[in-house]
Automatic annotation (TrEMBL):
Gene3D superfamilies, per database record: Tetratricopeptide repeat domain
Cited InterPro entries: PPR_rpt, TPR-like_helical_dom_sf
Repeat found in the keyword field: yes
Signal peptide feature range: none
Family: Belongs to the PPR family. P subfamily.
Keywords per UniProt: Repeat, Transit peptide
Name used for this protein in its record: Pentatricopeptide repeat-containing protein
PPR repeats: 9-43, 44-78, 114-148, 219-253, 254-288, 289-323, 324-358, 359-393, 394-428
NCBIfam families documented for this protein: PPR (TIGR00756)
Superkingdom field: Eukaryota
Organism: Zea mays (Maize)
Amino acid sequence: MPADGCRPDCFTYNTLVHGVCRRGIVDEALRLVKQMERAGIRPNVVTYTMLVDGFCNASRVEEAVCVLERMKEKGVSATEATYRSLVHGAFRCLEKERAYRMLSEWIESDPTLHSIAYHTLLYCLSKNDMDKEAVELAKKMSKRGYLLGSTTFSIVIPCAVKVLESSDLCELVDDFIKKGGNLGFDMYIMIIKSFLRCKDISKANKYFSQMVSDGLLSSVESYNIVIDCFAKAGEVERALETIKVMQESGFSPNLVTFNTLINGYLKLGNVHDAKAFLKMVMEHGLMPDVITFTSLIDGLCHTHQLDDAFNCFSEMSEWGVRPNVQTYNVLIHGLCSAGHVSKAIELLNKMKMDGITPDAYSFNAPILSFCRMRKIEKAQKLFNDMSRYGVSPDSYTYNALIKALCDERRVDEAKEIILAMESISCIGTKQHTYWPVVGALTKMGRFSEAGMFMNKLHRKNAHLGSVLI
């Protein structure tokens, strides 16, 4: 270029630096930057950011940190891209604890760092399941005078609900609100669920009231989400109170609201009140749907009221509601749990006649029941019938048969099933698939075959490990 009367500028050098960094030749990139400076061309933020990224990709994170320090000396301000290149690069090429230690030292050495550096580090900590470290960093940011924005706090909250005690979580949230932070709908829901899990109902109520005062409950759907939180936590009375607040705000409960309450009562085993709400659905001019009936049938099955469950099943047609595969599955499972496997098979055949295609779950309950009863031939017949129905067995189906066959010392048949599993890529064979075979072979004195199966298991685990790495 100089021979042609042209002088390279910063853009020219940056293009070269980018090229050599992409090829992993970071030392050459560093040489080019020094050449720039000798030529009187000042490297800019793009130059330094490419160097940071290059050093991180070469697993030379300490040198990437030095580049940031050099930028500061030269009066070049780092951008979001610079910080993200360093933080993401450190977690990408180093073991996560080491990456955090190194980046913590860097942050401690420079109290004037831009908040985006903290935000990116928080993001990486949360993605690497370093919840405790993320919460500690957030507290450190607050002490240093950084105002956590809603986006940053939305990263902290999922970590905080996992590691903080109820009172500490409350303190963290209240401090954020006191400093002018705005919790979004999803964050409030996460916090409420956390307090409900630890049975701290008063604090759950507190943040529900805060949601109302913040105007975040502006539709039936938003109220239904809160009602679902209380109902699933077994706090049905609080869910009912929420409905009153909802109605006072001018919103009428819909079918989803009632289905949620019915499920809540059934979770508590309170079938009587669940049925009462079914009547209330009709009083509000709503039509119960397949979810309503299936939930009620499931609750009746769990409380061993099979006759009532089948009466409810019959009522569906009277209401013009067609049962789906989940409805049949609930009844099949209920029959099998009560020891009525033959009736479950009859219901399975009825499904096909009614035009409902069964799934693997439809077959699993009766197959497992036959296996437990040591009626292997019947279990195998049902297993073979699955293909006739166009249903593919899942790992649960295979494992039930393998264990049952091994218990009866029919190991060769179990091995054939494992081979069939291995030939189907979508169904994984895990340790608990092989152990019954290994145990049965050992009991039968076929030690060499047991050893071969153990080696196969170790090879499989080693292969899985290499894939994950």
